[in-house]
Amino acid sequence: MELSLSVVLLLAIILIVLLRNKSLKWGPAIVAILFGFFLASTGMAPAVNRFFNSVADTINNISF
């Protein structure tokens, strides 16, 4: 749950920065938000969640 909230917060901040810098217009931003919303309600949502969890675990296991 912590990872999901962090990713959502990070993506929201990136979206706000892109909108404020006018790198992204409001129309495509709304389409991207709706796409994410509807994707979360499909059968593909668990696969996307597993992918991001595995990426997070991989990053967590990197040692310098």
How would you portray this structure in words?
The chain crosses the membrane at residues 29-48. Keywords: Membrane, Transmembrane, Transmembrane helix. This is DUF2304 domain-containing protein. The chain is mostly helical and 64 residues long. 80% of the residues lie in helices and 0% in strands. The chain has helices spanning 2-20, 26-40, 45-61. The radius of gyration is 14 Å and the shape is flat.
* Mean pLDDT figure: 83
CA-based shape: flat
Please identify the structural class as seen in this structure.
mainly alpha
Distance between the termini: 26 Å
Q: Rounded to an integer, what's the Rg over CA atoms?
A: 14 Å
What can be said about the biggest beta sheet?
none
Order of helices and strands: HHH
Uncertain segments are: none
By oligomeric state, this entry counts as single chain
| Beta content | under 5%
Number of helices: 3
